[in-house]
Amino acid sequence: MKCKSIACIWSGSPPVHKVTAVAALNNPPTIYTGGSDGSIIWWNLISKEITPVAMLCGHVAPIADLGICVPTTVLGDGKLDDSNNAVSTSNSSNCGALLSACTDGVLCIWSRDSGQCRRRRKMPPWVGTPYLIRSFPDNRRYVCIACCSFDHVHLSDHHSLSFAEKGESFADRDSQHAKPVKCTLVIVDTYTLAIVQTVFHGSLTIGPLKSVAVISSFGDVLTESVMMVDSFGKSQCIPILKEWDSSMVNMTTKSNLFDTGKVDWVSGSKDRGLLVAFANRGPVLAFVYRTCCMFCLLEGGSSVGEISFSDDLLSIEGRTHAIGGMFVGDENNQLDSEDSGTTFIEKFVVWNGKGAAIVYRICYSNNIFKYEPFAAIPVISQESSMSLSISFVQVKNCLFRVESISFPINELLIWKPRLTCWVLPKLHDNNEIKCQECRLSGEGRLFDDWTRNHNTPENEILRQVVEIDTTCGNDELTSSQDAATCSKAIDERVLSQQNGTYERKELVSSSMVISEDYVPLAIVYGFYNGDIKVVRFDMFFEGLDFHDQNSYPESKAHATQRYLLGHTGAVLCLAAQRVLIRCQGGSNSYVLLSGSMDCTIRVWDLDSSSSMIVMHQHVAPVRQIILPPSQTECPWSNCFLSVGEDSSVSLSSLDTMRVERMFPGHPYYPAKVVWDSRRGYLACLCANQTGTSDADVLYIWDVKSGARERVLRGSAAVSMFEHFCTGIDRDLHDSSMISGNTSASSLPFPVTDEPKSPAPQSRTLGKGISSSNISVSKSVSESTTGSNRSAFPSLQIRKQPVKGSCPFPGVAALSFDLTSLMSLCQSGEYYKAESSNLNKNQVKEIRVESPIKRTNFRDQETVIPSSSDQSINDKSGVTSIEAARDSEWMFLLEQCLLQFSLSILHMWNVDPELDKLLVTEMKLKRPQNLLVASGLLGDRGSLTLTFPEDTSTLELWKSSSEYCAMRSLTMVSLAQHMISLSPSFQAASSSLSAFYMRSFAEKVPDIKPPLLQLLVSFWQDEAEHVKMAARSLFHCAASRAIPPPLCRDIPRVNENGVSPCGNYDSGPAEEPTNCLRDDKQIVTEENAEDEESEIRSWLESFEMQDWISCVGGTSQDAMTSHIIVAAALAVWYPSLVKPKLVGLAVNPLVKLVMAMNEKYSSTAAEILAEGMESTWKTCIGSEIPRLIGDIFFQIECVTGASANAPTKNPSTSVRIRDTLIGILLPSLAMADVLGFLNVIERQIWSTASDSPVHVVSLMTIVRVARGSPRNIVQYLDKVVTFILQTIDPGNLAMRKTCLQSSIAALKEIARIFPMVALNDPVTRLAIGDAIGEINSASIRVYDMQSITKIKVLDASGPPGFPSLLGGASGMTVTTAISALSFSPDGEGLVAFSETGLMIRWWSYSSGSVWWEKLNKNLVPVQCTKLIFVPPWEGFSPNANRSSIMASVFSKDGDANSQENTNASNEMDRFKQLLHNIDLSYRIEWVGQRKIKLTQHGHDLGSFQL
Asked: What are φ and ψ of residue 62, in 5° steps?
């Protein structure tokens, strides 16, 4: 499982967002707006203010449409409210979600609660460009997506049209096509995002597609059809007959039902102009034109009425101009008469391009159509230079006007969204219709004053300005002192931000993150006015100063900001690469590459902030800069590609600073370019963005020769490009190969799943970073490019701990990988081991100085102190010095990385005392001069990024249990890991852990508890701190995070003694009558069945678990985590869960253990073992022996140590085997000792002699004896017999395998149980009856050489033994032998019995002949001497007391009752005897014939034998 926490850093300006699609949810009130750049903004409507919560990042192309769906098997509680062009609203159920589609064909499902992307998939190329999304009215799990062969909804980022202009221009343009428009209708399952049915694929018989609706008709068979409407009001219906199975999931199409044809629904539609909107509500269809709206009935297509728009309300410059319309209200307004469908009352809203809208109340009854204006919304007041894009959406009783307002900057249109809420008036009681103006109740927009509360003190900003002197003939650099005018302008700009105003010149056009293998170094912003700003993370890494070289300036540089001036147009793309600068003495330095609207590419030296060269190979704006992929050989490793709007691609070298190759002649702008450096090819996909029917084109170039190799068109071009990218991704393991425009470079859809890490190399060298290839390339062999040396020691890590990316311009996303952060110390140990193998020349080139602690990015060679000159000549001495330095540097790096992670991820300003403690003791740095927000990782690289406000971040805590679990787990794990680095952090780390486990929920009561299913997935994490943090968070949150199906309904009683039901809690109620009891019993049985069904459904559920995409899990993980959570709650919190949970969870838990799942079987085994005695034994008591046998079988298969097993099973984790052997098996054996002993006895004969099962059985016996000795004491004879069988000389293979373990087990048994004795030479073994009948107790003596019983010693009661002590019967079971011991000289055996307080002594001093004679006869031998021990102070044996009391009560009791209760009394007495048995007696030899008796180490007396 992966645990990645997301933080985002926003620029000082809000993002650009032109709305192209809108969707809304009623519960909770939420609006989603999709933009032309692919972003989706989540607006919260719960409070009075309309606030943007987060940006949903999953698309790189314009959003085509948004829709509401229910991606589960559970149907929603209502139908879609609307199915028009602009909006998709829903009476949402708890499982509703947002479906988004972009023009690239990528589909995303977004969770309603957290905004997280549940699933991200790409449609096949043959489908075309998605255009509209429509949900099925009766089953919203499925949606119909209409796609066109060319891009209807492509909107340029800089030359966008308003909605009205778009509709007109597309219609006019499409009407000129001679060829029919190709269209595809597909039905998509929103749970899997897979196409389940193709409804239509071909050319339309009508004009250009305008809208789509899913309509239903009721007859003998329920049929659904897809209606396609063109720009002239004509439609084409495609019928769908569905056969639903019992689960209502599978759909099949009945083909050839009837021919599809075109129907002219409105007569004279050609005279009315172009259709601007189409809407349907049940059987009513609405066709909106510029000047009127026609209403028709679905059946027959007859027109029922027309609304002519009033020039006073919808006129623009004296001309009526409607651009959209939709039905408002819910479907309850519709009335059905006896004629079914001929009567309806609806509300319909129409709006124009200036934002004015009219709500009409329409009525149709008895063939009479009436309409009257009901409400009005005024126009938007705007400047004449601004453009508008308008749409409306309904949420409950309010209409929301979604406005996109544009303003020009450098000949570009910049769009900003704005939402206004208008409350619809209520109808009067007399049904009198008056046109009233809607009341404005709220307004929301993206924040224009983000810097108001995040300003930075002037003395904490180090600002350096670089300007190009354009008056000179060449591009020479002028210093910051010569650029006083620019410095003043920037100072004024910053001052205006501090005053809370917003300067449009600071709008970000592109951005990127520069990062090394371990840490992010800086964020680079490119602005629309041509400026470039570099913001470095120096404040977080001040401790990485290894040799005190090139230290910081004395000025306090918490966040260094440097401005690079030179471009005259918007900066559209950025890239950074570490190269060898020959003109500066061969030093290794970072260079920044920037492409602009001014058609130039500038190369900057980031160390000196100077411009190195200006390149003019393009004659149009430069859109992309692409760096060579990893493992690129010389001379291509220091080259880069640039892509311009002049449809050309150039290859330039940073060594020669000139253009080496040009790849011109593309028919369109190459939006996607991929460089395959291994094979030497370049693939350029040119998407058709002209609106014509021409297909996409793929050009493949030979990089070395510059020749064009192949040209592909249409769907084959897209398929070949994806295949091309798949091959590169498989070869180079680079997940950022496909690059779109540079502002969205981290979001292109991955062509393959997440690749596995490549095999580690001996050296890794950083290559570069770009805004189209954000992450640092993994490695380049030093033999090919020795100049590109990394700034960090060559350490191999599995993943980058902190990875930076820029999904959209102006926002930098930082991904903190918990696994990599917790394993940095292991990387240091790896390097320390590898450094011992370096030679002298390699040692001289190792970098041990951090580049972050220096002012320069330049790489310099390490200078060895002169005092160690002698050691330089010594190879081992130099290696040890460098290893020690790098080991210390790695320790500092780990500490700085953890501090940086905690500083960025911590929720500041919630607990001021904790914040102060973290700053003073843990040395965290508050990111005061950075706009830091939170985020959530979704499926396949998608992101959910909150806006830089505390309320937005808290919204995630309040709405997403997945986010709470991920962030809390990360913070607690890192805090605990900080303690292992330094004990001085203990107080602050403990407080930080307590904050995220308890205090945060106390200070903000309405935050969600962490999701238990997500926490249990980390219970077997490799990092111990993560494992313990997950378990601690589980226990802290369990009481308030129990899933509702499992939670017990406990009635609470208030202060007055009244329960919630209204009954007084006044003691036990009277007994009901039999009749009432029967009724109550029936109700209870029904409730029990419902409860059981609900629990079982939850245990077996796996669909649409949001946390699965957070941790990269599968549906199997969802089911297994449910089982683990249910079992853990049943064991640890039985009073909080339903009683039936135990019986329903135990069988899935046992199956999970036996499944040998590497992620969960160990956890399941631990829970099963922990709750065996208290919880599970009552349910599976009879199944324990079978379960033990299954475990032995798994051990036999897993270990594979048997001689008969050909090979080992490498797929099974050793950790599972250790858990089964060390935890589960002992607990099962303790629960059923006799069953366990019977199983292991059978294993002697049923498994191979050298099987590991026998050794495991011996280990389990020892663990059971240690953990529960009283449970095994009555079976000591069977235990010893089994141990002796494993070392039987007759089975040499088993004896060889088990000899050492068997002898150790015998010694441990003799140590725990005093009634088992083993002499010092381990030649004799004696075992006495711990519990037995008084008159038949005995002691068996075994010869350890032959493993045979050689004698039986009689330990029965002597003649004259008091009958009172024996109880009521001579056959009473009691303690027989309490302690045994062989004499030191081996000539005798002594035994002590607590019952009767007797010491028996058997002497065989006459020699070995006496023993040998006994071998032939096992007749019990009487003792040589009998000694009665006087009672000691405090002696009160439980056996005697119980015997006396039993005798007394038996004499006074009734004979009949005595017979009935005899068996139960004996059983209870036996259990009490086992419970009270004393295993602390010991016999010590203090002389040749003298012993000392002890109990619990206390001397009870010495006795002479």
From this structure: -55, 140
Spatial separation of the C-alpha atoms in residues 1242 and 500, rounded to whole Å: 82
What is the per-residue pLDDT across 223-246, written as a single tens digit (0 to 9) for each? 788 888 888 888 888 888 665 443
The C-alpha angle with vertex 53 and arms to 50 and 58, in degrees rounded to 5, equals: 130
**Who's near 284: CB < 8 A, 6+ residues apart?**
295, 296, 297, 298, 327, 334, 344, 346, 364
pLDDT of residue 1208: 43
Three-state SS annotation for 350-394: EEECCCCEEEEEEEEECCEEEEEEEEEECCCCCCCCCEEEEEEEE
Alpha helices in 499-542 (DSSP H): none
- How far apart, in whole angstroms, are the C-alpha atoms of residue 197 and residue 214? 15
Query: pLDDT tens, 396-436?
Result: 889 999 998 887 766 677 888 999 999 988 776 555 667 78
The pLDDT assigned to 1012 comes to 94
| Integer Cα distance of 851 and 836 in angstroms | 24
Position 608 scores a pLDDT of: 82
HSE (side-chain half, CA atoms, 13 Å) at 1380: 29
Q: Which of 1452, 1362, 1321, 1341 is nearest to 1404 (CA)?
A: 1341
CB atoms closer than 10 angstroms to residue 852: 25
> What does the pLDDT look like over 14-34, one tens digit per residue?
888 899 999 998 888 899 999
- Please state whether beta strands 463-468 and 802-808 pair in parallel, antiparallel, or not at all (unpaired): unpaired
Q: What is the gyration radius of the CA atoms in the chain, in angstroms?
A: 41
Among 437-441, 596-600, 1329-1333, the range with the most confident prediction by mean pLDDT is: 596-600
> What is the token pair recorded at 312?
């006073």
| pLDDT value at residue 447 | 67
Distance (Å) of CA 281 to CA 440, 499, 1430, 1449: 27, 51, 101, 87
Question: What proportion of the chain, given as a percentage, has pLDDT over 70?
Answer: 69
Distance, in Å, from the CA atom of 646 to the CA atom of 648, rounded to the nearest integer, reads: 5
Beta bridge partners of 402: 391, 419
Is the overall model pTM greater than 0.85, yes or no? no
Amino acid identity of residue 316, one-letter, is: I
The closest of 263, 271, 257 to 236, measured between CA atoms, is: 263
- pLDDT by residue (tens digit) across 891-935? 888 888 899 999 999 999 999 999 999 999 998 988 878 889 999
49-99 pLDDT per residue, tens: 788 999 999 998 899 999 999 887 543 333 333 333 333 333 333 468 999
CA–CA distance, 618 with 650 (Å, rounded to integer): 8
Question: Residue 422 corresponds to which tokens in the numbers above?
Answer: 């208008």
8 Å CB contact between 32 and 92: no
d(CA 518, CA 1356): 77
Structure tokens at 366: 């008895």
Cα-based distances in Å from 1191 to 1223, 1245, 1279: 12, 17, 20
Longest CA–CA separation in the chain, Å: 134
The answer to whether 693 and 179 have CB atoms below 8 angstroms apart is yes
Q: What is the DSSP string of 869-935?
A: HHHHSSHHHHHHHHHHHHHHHHHHHHHHHHHHHHHHHS-TTS-HHHHHHHHHTS-----TTSEEEEE
Is 833 buried (19+), middle (13-18) or exposed (0-12) by CB count in 10 A? Answer: exposed
pLDDT mean across residues, the chain: 75
For residue 1079, give both structure tokens: 């009724």
First to last CA, the chain: 68
Take residue 1080 and report the two structure tokens written for it.
């109550």
Record the tokens describing residue 506, joined without a space: 């600071």
792 pLDDT more than 50: no
For CA atoms 324, 328, 331, 335, the dihedral sign is negative
Give Cα separations from 28 to 44, 117, 959 (angstroms).
9, 18, 11
